[in-house]
Specification:
The structure is a homodimer of 243-residue chains. The first copy, chain A, contains 9 helices and 11 strands. With 243 residues, chain A is α/β, with parallel strands linked by helices.
Chain lengths: 243, 243
C-alpha cells in the first residue's frame, strides 16, 4: 500500500462563520494539491480567536504532513494569525527585513504606516512565501503554510509553495453521468463494483438542475488501468439504469 | 453580558475535501441562524470516515448549544452519517416506521429497494426533520440536527428546525463602503473606534473587482442604537480617507 501524503486546511475568519463570505479557498487548494498526490483529510473554519487558532494549528501540524492556513495576515487589529502561528510553535515574532523589502516594492515610505508594517511581522525562522499580487508575503513555519485569505492573493502564493511539497502517488478520478436516475437505483450495484477493486473508491453525487436530474458516479484511485476498467463497468451500469 | 447561544457546523463528504464540490451550506445555515440570535463558532469539513464523524459529533455536541451536520444520509454505501450519529450517542439504530411513511409518499413499493430503505434508518429516540423536497427525512438527536448535503434539500429541512431553537439576543450588522482605499489606511482608526464600544466588533474586508477596489467596514453588535453611532463614525472615517 502506498503511503498517503496528507494535508489539513485551516480557514481563518469571522466573516466565513457569519456567512458573509463564502469560502472558495478550500476547493482551490484541494484541486491544486491533487496532481501533487496530496490528499486533504480535513478542513476547519475557525474564528479570529487566539486560542482556537493556536490549538488548531498545533493539532493539524502534528496530524498531517502539510497544513495550509488562509486569512488573518492583513494589516488590521483582528489580523492575528502570524502571532498565533509563532505561539503555536513557541517561537518569537518580529518585523523582518526580508518582509519589509517585499512591502517596499509596493508601498512608499509614507504609505508604510504602523498598520501595514504589521504585515512584515514573521515568526522566527519561518521562510517567506512570495505574494505576486499584493506583495505582503505569506510564510512557512515547519510544515505549516500561512497564506492570505483573499482568493486571488492566496492563488498567487501557491506558485511559491509547489516546490516545497513532497507529494505522493497521484490520485486519479473518472466521472460517469447517469441521467434521469436516482441515487437509490444505483447504490447496490455501485457497492458491488467497489468491493471487487482494492484501493478504489466510488462515490455517487446526485444533481438537480432545472431540466436535468441524475447522478454522477465518481471513481478515484491511483492505478489508471484499474480506473479504465471500473469506468467501463460504470458506463455499462449507467446505460442499463437509464435505458 | 448576554449569554451567547452557539452553534457548530459539521460538513460531511469526501467530495468537499477533494474540491469537487464547493460548500454553500455553511453560509446558508449561518445566515439562517443570525436572526435567531445563534452564532456559528466553528465549522469542520470532514471525510466520510466513521471514527472522524463520531469524534467530531461528540466534541461539537458537548462544546456548542446546537450542532448541524450536512451530508451522508442518502441511499449509498458511503452514506454512513446516521449510523455514526447513533454511535456517537451510544444509541441503537433501525428502520423506523415514521421514516418509512415519509418515503412512501414519494416512492412506490417497487422503488423502495434496500438502498432507499436505508434512508429510513434513524437513531433510537431521534425525532424526524421533515424534508419537503425529496421526503427522506433528517433527524434531531439531542442538540444535533442531521440534514442532507444537497443544498436545496438542506434548505427545505431548515423550515422544520426553526421552532426547535432557543435563540439568544440577535446580532445586527452594518456595512460601510470605503472606495479606493487599502485596508492599511483604515486599520489604526478602526481599532480606535472599536476600543470605545463594548460588545461591538469591527471587521474590514478588502475587495478587488475589475473596476473598483476598496474596503468594506462591517460592525456587528447586539444594540442597534450603538450600531447607529458606530456606523456614523465609520461613514465619517470612510469620507475622510477617500476624499
Amino acid at each position: 500500500m502506498t503511503h498517503t501524503v496528507t494535508a489539513g486546511i485551516i480557514l481563518i475568519g469571522d466573516e466565513l462563520l457569519s456567512g458573509r463570505t463564502k469560502d472558495t479557498n478550500l476547493s482551490t487548494i484541494a484541486k491544486w494539491l491533487e496532481p501533487l498526490g496530496v490528499q486533504v483529510m480535513e478542513a476547519r473554519i475557525i474564528a479570529d480567536d487566539r486560542s482556537t487558532i493556536i490549538e488548531t494549528v498545533r493539532h493539524f501540524s502534528a496530524q498531517f504532513d502539510y497544513v495550509f492556513t488562509t486569512g488573518g495576515i492583513g494589516p488590521t487589529h483582528d489580523d492575528i494569525t502570524a502571532d498565533c502561528i509563532a505561539s503555536a510553535f513557541d517561537r518569537g515574532i518580529s518585523e523582518r527585513e526580508d518582509a519589509m523589502a517585499e512591502l517596499r516594492t509596493r508601498y512608499s515610505e509614507e504609505d508604510l504606516n504602523a498598520a501595514r508594517r504589521r504585515m512584515a511581522r514573521i515568526p522566527d525562522g519561518a521562510s517567506l512565501i512570495k505574494n505576486p499580487v499584493s506583495q505582503a508575503p505569506g510564510f512557512q513555519t515547519e510544515n505549516v503554510f500561512t497564506m492570505a485569505g483573499v482568493p486571488s492573493i492566496m492563488k498567487g502564493m501557491l506558485a511559491d509553495i509547489g516546490h516545497r511539497i513532497q507529494g505522493g502517488a497521484k490520485v486519479y478520478s473518472r466521472t460517469v453521468l447517469a441521467e434521469g436516475i436516482g441515487e437509490g437505483d444505483a447504490a447496490a450495484p455501485l457497492a458491488e463494483i467497489e468491493k471487487d477493486y482494492d484501493g478504489v473508491s466510488i462515490g455517487s453525487y446526485p444533481f438537480f438542475n432545472q431540466n436535468l436530474t441524475g447522478v454522477n458516479f465518481v471513481v478515484r484511485g491511483r492505478d489508471e488501468s484499474v480506473l479504465d476498467e471500473v469506468e467501463a463497468k460504470l458506463r455499462t451500469l449507467a446505460n442499463s439504469l437509464t435505458s
